[in-house]
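Hi everyone, sorry if this is the wrong subforum. Our group has a chain we'd like a structural model of before ordering constructs, and none of us has done structure prediction before. Sequence below.
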Amino acid sequence: MTNITSINIEKEDDFGFGTQIRKSPYFDATVRWGAKGFSVYNHTYIPRDFGDPEQNFWNLVNEAILCDVAGERQVEITGPDAAKFMQSLTPRDLSEMAVGQCKYILITNAEGGILNDPILLRLAENHFWISLADSDILLWAQGVAVNSGLEVSIREPDVSPLQLQGPNSGEVMKKLFGESIMDLRYYWLREIDLDGIPLIVSRTGWSSELGYELYLRDGTQGDELWEKIMAAGAPFGLKPGHTSTIRRIEGGMLSYHADADIDTNPYELGMDRLVNPDMEAEFIGKAALQRIRKNGVSRKQVGLRIDMAPLKRPNTRYWPLSKDGESVGKVTSAVYSPRLEQNIALAMVATEHATIGTELEIPTAAGPVKAVVVEKPFFDPKKQIAISA
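Answer:
Right subforum, don't worry. Here is the predicted structure as tokens:
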């Protein structure tokens, strides 16, 4: 007999949310711990405001933060042909991906456009999770499967990740799981149980810091898991938080729909390492990516330093970029970095203006603002912080 959870009807409209957008298993906990604003990610509310975003950044880089990222929904692919089907979705060669390993991949369409840039987890020989950025890959995968002739099952499982990120995250993990958790390598996963709470734990995260993701496999235990982690982290300065725009731009990390979309291809982003158009296996977009590689691209993603007063908040729309009065591209993500003490940005510009040191302009109502093309990532370019344990 299924257990029935009681609800407090008087509190049902506290935030006035409807049922068509989901609340995560950690929603009530994040509200208790101070979440004041939410965005929507994969049809799920995700906390985006725990107070001062600069303080959230310092909490992340100096101590540790716990983030509700249950909006990173999973697409589960199982069945005898799961591995072959999974390879058909991505231009990254998966032939040497081991059970227990994670990989950052791209999912492309027939034109080579990027549909998603998820983390792929291999739980068993024919058992994969695609941990999604914000787009409907469940529907795409199910549609591709219809006429694939492959024997696969594709569904969204009851799986909701948390991100525990920052230099003290390892200490929190040791408190929760013991010393053996430190053997977990970067971009590998482990099935684990925490006092009866079923989890997959991986050494991954959207922060460019040392960090872990904890994939809860039973949504009814979300509140309990959140409180256990916060209690274990108290001696190490753990704070509730949200994914940091400052830190992810410092690290040159993409935000899908902002820095990449269906009309962006991997070569424009300098992600050649994630594409193997010469491999024997077939994948969607193979011919297009071979053609793009041969012909080259007309635009490239670059890093920018923007010379103006510190930005008060990240951009909420694309900013035009010009050179000698001509439009040459757009700023996709911009923010002020208090650590670097400068405004930094990711931008897409015409290839001929993508050289380091090129000076561009952002037209504003107060006059043009200078933007200089610089190296990216802006901080820890080889990701030594995230890799080291």
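For your construct planning: The radius of gyration is 21 Å. The chain has a mean pLDDT of 95.
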